Amino acid sequence: MKPKGLGPIPAGFEAHDGQLVIGGRSVSELVEETGRTPVFVYSRARLDARLGELRSALPPRIGINYAVKANPFAPVVQHMAGLVDGFDIASSGELALLKDLSIDMARVSFAGPGKRNDELEAAIKAGVTLNCESEGEAERTLAIGERVGITPQMAIRVNPDFEMKGSGMKMGGGAKPFGLDAERVPVLARRLIEAGVDWRGLHIFTGSQALSADAIIEAQANVIGLAGRLAGEIGAPLPKLNMGGGFGIPYFPGDEPLDLAAVGDALTDRVADLPMELAETQLCLELGRYLVGEAGVYLTRIVDRKESHGVTYLVTDGGLHHQLAASGNFGAVVRRNYPVAIATRFDEEPGEVANVVGCLCTPLDRLADAAELPRAEVGDLVAVFCAGAYGASASPANFLGHGPAAEMLV
Amino acid sequence: MKPKGLGPIPAGFEAHDGQLVIGGRSVSELVEETGRTPVFVYSRARLDARLGELRSALPPRIGINYAVKANPFAPVVQHMAGLVDGFDIASSGELALLKDLSIDMARVSFAGPGKRNDELEAAIKAGVTLNCESEGEAERTLAIGERVGITPQMAIRVNPDFEMKGSGMKMGGGAKPFGLDAERVPVLARRLIEAGVDWRGLHIFTGSQALSADAIIEAQANVIGLAGRLAGEIGAPLPKLNMGGGFGIPYFPGDEPLDLAAVGDALTDRVADLPMELAETQLCLELGRYLVGEAGVYLTRIVDRKESHGVTYLVTDGGLHHQLAASGNFGAVVRRNYPVAIATRFDEEPGEVANVVGCLCTPLDRLADAAELPRAEVGDLVAVFCAGAYGASASPANFLGHGPAAEMLV
């Protein structure tokens, strides 16, 4: 079997006595503490380090928001509360989570194209900023605010006329279900301001999972330009501008990490030369995957080792029910391998080519195809890296009755 | 926007006073009873009708097993207990479900390439037949049986040398993680019989979601031929043969229903002329999707109606977190539309072309692209048909914090 490449393991993961170490502890210790596999292990030190890199690279003027959807595990969200300036949520479920964690609702904004009336009401009552997605939603929000006697805090989500080039997922440019086409924003903004809402500004999201600094730099310039023009047309200052995110992480063979320094330098120049309409505007980035993705590792145990027509299969007790994207079944056109390793033989050289599969009765359940790995046996642990974002919560945990993986923050 | 076709709505769904009726009740009544949307509604009458069609078409010799993974909603499984001859499970979670429902474990078999030791032990203790996937799993099973002092009931899952042509998902032919390559089966079967297990026979699964009767007829002939040869080589009768399933349902534009009569006629002929090694063998089909898929409808409410660059979006409170396959993100290479309708305007002619999307902040969350539909407003209900199998349990319900849909059997 001709080997296929594996995605790059994020820098800094090391072996001790042959075992992958996360947060200073070996994978065997971590699994023993959890009492079961599979388990997602998230590293506090990596979360801290990533935020440190961002604070160093970005101008101090730029706030950093955490998009909770990337990883809503409560201890992770709690830890992020000490690191970031704000939170972006996408449902009343995420709102309830932040309430449970006693997070200051003045730091929270809520975007999502299909907000139900009960979600709007919960957000208004909680004092969360609503990123309005349409004229219809705006009128519903105003009516609910009136009914409950609370002034809604409202921003407008803009569907820009440009997109982030090379982003894994395009969120702007052309017809989209997200936000309001840019040319309709001034009319709605004036309507909201005249209706007496607490006007919070604009949210412009242009894409996600971009690894090209140039693409991000260009998108940010476009976002600032558009926001300045819209502020002028609205005729009122923008209290806040959520510039979106889009910072990607390397998942696949050949992917290179984002040049964060280049993005930071360009943004520093840009912030020094803002359009006058944004002179007093609070600027922030909304990041999810970039903050938490590389801080997480999914550990699953090999329960069978078998051959079929000359091909070696390492069958694990995990699978796509926890790792939908890694299996290639979420937004991917062609399946490619994530970074995967034998965590209990992390310092061994490759000794064979094997397919790593999950425990589900479906050929879709693949964790690594034709991977060059140290020879592993039943009982060894497999690590899937880049598992900190859109893993546990973005996978069908109940498929085939297996249930969710364990999660831990170390 | 040029309209794209929608998948065919299963025959027999009708309107009353303009509303889609399921199990004799309008969708508005059903949603009112549930108290929320989205909701999966499963129809007892449709489950009964499908089983009736199968019993009429198939020779009496052929048992029908239900693959619980297709829909593990407890009331559905309970209802199936009165209709089918056996159950196939894929995890200890499904085993626990059947136990809770007091289903006779003598009717249950357990297949899955990554059975953990605790799952093997639970199955042995419960008296479930284990469809063994490898020599390694066989030895683990024997050891556990010895340790707990219970004789395991064991069959062998065979990876056949042929596949079901035209099946949506190939499960046999070439290297596979499922079962044992056919040529290694006799040695392992003799080993198990000599070790004193309760020998239960073979499980041969060749594919799934096939709409071609010819392909199924050919695969069944091959399965019976292979089982006969293997029984001869084993030198012991096969108590049971699970012939797999693979019966598909139409999801997409142009799909035609399976010609069940043709499959039944061919199988009747085949059963009248069985290899002598199978003369006393209990034969069964394992069906999941075909039994429950068309009995389910997913209902979601339109919460926004918006335009973007001339495109109309109907934004619902549902989405891919309940309908991953319908969104095109599960095993599909090219996204095509499932059968979708405006359930509260079920007798109206199309009046516009619209995109039906879910409430998630991702461009992946699409329920229908460029669909010709009656003009719908906020508050209308959208029906996604063919939602009875691999819907609720095969989707990432916790994605973005929305949580699972309601489910009801009517």
Fold and architecture overview:
- The structure is a homodimer of 410-residue chains.
- Chain A has 410 residues and is of the alpha/beta class.
- Chain A has two domains: 14-42 and 294-409, Lyase, Ornithine Decarboxylase, Chain A, domain 1 (Beta Barrel); 72-287, Alanine racemase (TIM Barrel), CATH 3.20.20.10.
- In chain A, 27% of the residues lie in helices and 25% in strands.
- Chain A is built from ten helices and 22 strands.
- In chain A, the strands form four sheets. In chain A, strands 4, 16, 17, 18, 19, 20, 21 and 22 form an eight-stranded mixed beta sheet that branches. In chain A, strands 5-6-7-8-9-12-14-15 form an eight-stranded parallel barrel, surrounded by four helices. In chain A, strands 1-2-3 form a three-stranded antiparallel beta sheet.
- In chain A, strand 14, helix 9 (260-271) and strand 15 form a beta-alpha-beta unit.
- In chain A, helix 7 (185-194) packs across helix 8.
- The longest helix of chain A is centred in the middle third of the chain and has 22 residues, at 213-234.
- Chain A is elongated and about 70 Å long.
- The relative contact order of chain A is 0.18.
Short structural summary:
Chain A is an alpha/beta fold and 410 residues long. Chain A has helices at 27-34, 44-57, 74-81, 92-100, 117-126, 135-148, 185-194, 213-234, 260-271, 289-292; strands at 14-16, 19-22, 25-26, 39-42, 62-67, 86-89, 108-110, 129-132, 153-159, 169-170, 180-181, 198-204, 207-208, 240-242, 282-287, 296-308, 311-316, 340-342, 352-357, 366-373, 381-384, 406-409.
